[in-house]
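Project outcomes to date are best conveyed with an example. Our students and postdoctoral researchers have been running inverse folding experiments weekly, and each run begins with a structure described purely in tokens. The record below, which covers 132 residues, was selected by the lab manager from last quarter's runs and is presented without edits.
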């Protein structure tokens, strides 16, 4: 049966909604990235080692998210910031890009709003739930 995926992502966490017919499952993946320290003194250059560590941590996080998407036939990527675009680029490099339906800027949502938005985006899957 066809599986569609709605993905909400930022640098802190990813919420992945798998929809297969009437079945729905939400998986949450945390990046475990500490909040970056405040930049009160902008005259100090960025620490390259810290930036490399952050980049490596994000790469591992994105790889974990991508591994969850391997069985999806269609993917809707949503999120408020840069993470959705960064993830899209990684997906394209992993040859899953044909499955992406849309990338959309969306603020934080409740689980119900998230499910409704994904169901609205993939209407054929929504009809399976109505059971008319």
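After processing, the design step wrote out the following sequence:
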């Amino acid at each position: 049966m066809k599986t569609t995926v709605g993905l909400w992502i930022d640098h802190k966490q990813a919420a992945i909604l798998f929809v297969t017919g009437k079945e729905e499952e939400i998986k949450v993946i945390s990046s475990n990235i500490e909040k970056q320290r405040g930049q009160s003194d902008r005259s100090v250059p960025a620490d390259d080692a810290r930036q490399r560590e952050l980049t490596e941590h994000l790469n591992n996080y994105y790889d974990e998210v991508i591994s969850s998407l391997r069985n999806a036939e269609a993917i809707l990527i949503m999120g408020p910031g840069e993470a959705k675009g960064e993830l899209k680029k990684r997906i394209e490099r992993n040859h899953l890009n044909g499955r992406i339906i849309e990338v959309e800027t969306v603020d934080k949502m409740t689980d119900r709003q998230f499910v409704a938005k994904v169901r609205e985006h993939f209407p054929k899957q929504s009809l399976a739930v109505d059971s008319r």
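The two ends are 19 Å apart (CA to CA). Confidence is low (pLDDT under 50) at residues 36-41, 126-132. The training component of this project remains on track.
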